[in-house]
Amino acid sequence: MAQSSLDSLTKPIEKLYAGLPAIPVAWRDVIVAVSPWLALIFGVLGVFGSLSAFGISTVLSPLVVLGGGVGTATSLIAVSVIGLVTSVLMLIAFPSLLKRKMLGWKYLFWAELLGIVSSVVSLTITGVVLGLVWLYFLFQIKPAYK
Question: pTM here?
């Protein structure tokens, strides 16, 4: 994806968060230091969880179709696939986050956006709210990456 395409997406979202209070610099430094490790841990757990959920959702799809309809079965599979992609993005982000490269931040940004999409698809309001909160923290630490 071209830089301008990413900027055209991040800039409006960043403007939404610009008016919110800044977190203390000490907190930002802690978040920046811990982020690579959180990405690694949640990436690994997410890959295993998504593969497991995908396996369960495809096996149970016929039963889910009977109980909840085709839309429910499709959303289960979609959420599993999105979760897998999100987790892989976190794993890919890990080395760049350790080196405080902007590429790592961008992978986390995409992972978070996909997480929010997954929450919308699965109609999980809590996931959407938490995703929006994580975006706030993500934009707070953005200046630490070059």
Answer: 0.80
Instruction: Classify burial at 35, counting beta carbons within 10 Å of its beta carbon; exposed 0-12, middle 13-18, buried 19 or more.
Output: buried
* Tens-digit pLDDT profile for residues 20-42: 999 999 999 999 999 999 999 99
- The amino acid that residue 15 corresponds to is K
3-class DSSP assignment, residue 123: coil
Select from 137, 106, 134, 104 the least CA-distant residue to 118.
134
CB 53 within 8 A of CB 83: yes
Closest CA to 115 of 85, 74, 77: 85
- How far, CA to CA in Å, does 145 sit from each of 56, 65, 117? 38, 46, 25
Q: How many other C-beta atoms are found inside a 10 Å radius of the C-beta of residue 79?
A: 22
Q: For 111-131, how does the pLDDT look when each residue is reduced to its tens digit (9 = 90+)?
A: 999 999 989 988 889 999 999
Planar angle of CA 117, 126, 115, nearest 5 degrees = 25
